[in-house]
Amino acid sequence: MMPVWVLLFSASMWGLSSLPLKAFAAYGLSGPLLAGVAFGLAGLVSLPLLLREHRQWRHSLGTLVLLAVVGGWGNTAYVTALVQGDVVRVMLLFYLLPAWSVLGGWLFLGERVSRRRGGAVALALSGAFLVVGGFAAFSTPFSLADAMAVTAGLGFAGNNIIARHAQGIPTASKTVVLFLGCAMTALPLALWVDGSDAARVLPTLTPAVMGWLVAYAIGWLGLITATWQWSVTRMEAGRAGVISIAELVVALLAATLVGGERMTLLECVGGVMIAVAAILEATDSAATTPPAAMQ
User: Fold this and answer.
1) 95 phi and psi, to 5 degrees?
2) Which of 91, 10, 75 is nearest to 40 (CA)?
3) Closest to 197 in 3D by CA, of 6, 33, 18
4) Residue 182 and residue 205: Cα distance in Å, rounded?
5) How far apart are CA 235 and CA 62, in angstroms?
6) How far is CA 28 from each of CA 204, 205, 260, rounded to the nearest angstrom?
7) How far apart are CA 133 and CA 274, in angstroms?
């Protein structure tokens, strides 16, 4: 059960991410630039860990590169979507993640999709749909933030599958590679999104803001990324995808308690459905595919 609790912690911290991200955005940092700088700082600080473990991953370099691209884009797209879009709409589109994870685990890892797991996925997605008001959430045109949210879910699901497959690579190496991959995918996106606005590409930041940004990168992002990688390596991709939906619950609570927003009856019902789905998945004792069979 330890990976389950660790993933619940990491998902909860991710659910609070919109608070510091919106605060940094107020100082002129766009989503891609914020992702690139924050994850890049974390990657540079933790680079010695990757070099120290090179003997353990040197024969799996292709897997690490794939993890950097897929997982790195997931984080870049997630941060960009939260900064530039409506948080509630972003979370709905992002939380197609459980469906991608279960489907990917079945296709690439041979994970069995039990009736309980399939029901948990359906219940979780139905709850997420209710939380954002049903079809009303799609009444506005599809935007860049929407595209980022959808591809962020795909990236996180892909990260879960690759991390689960790469049992022989240490968690620290996976985490550092994810940081570096995010920086490499974020900076080109920043030039594409904000390239015509020099003030957006390189905003002037005070020493205090830079200090908070460094603390956020090393403390917050370092902790939640490492715990995420550690936990998803030790559980099925489908289970990880459903349990991580706790992030949505925390995000809604943060919007209510900190942002002053009020939840409707429909949102409350959806939140209960999501919580029940997470519990069903976390306590599923069905037989799983052992990691050795995936190599």
Assistant:
1) -85, 30
2) 75
3) 33
4) 22
5) 22
6) 8, 8, 24
7) 14
Q: 23, 97, 26, 64: which is closest to 163 by C-alpha?
A: 64
Angle at 214 between CA 212 and CA 215, to 5 degrees: 60
Summarised one tens digit per residue, pLDDT across range 145-203 is 888 988 998 898 888 788 877 778 888 888 899 889 998 998 888 877 766 554 455 56
Cβ within 8 Å of residue 204, ≥6 positions away: 28
Ranges of the chain with pLDDT below 70 = 132, 137-138, 140-141, 194-204, 237-238, 241, 259-261, 263, 281-295
Which residue from 166, 287, 230 is spatially nearest to 5, judged by alpha carbons?
230
Q: State the Cα–Cα distance between residues 249 and 236, nearest whole angstrom.
A: 22
pLDDT, tens digit, 9 for 90 and up, residues 201-224: 556 677 888 888 888 888 888 888
- Cβ pair 34, 79 in contact under 8 A: yes
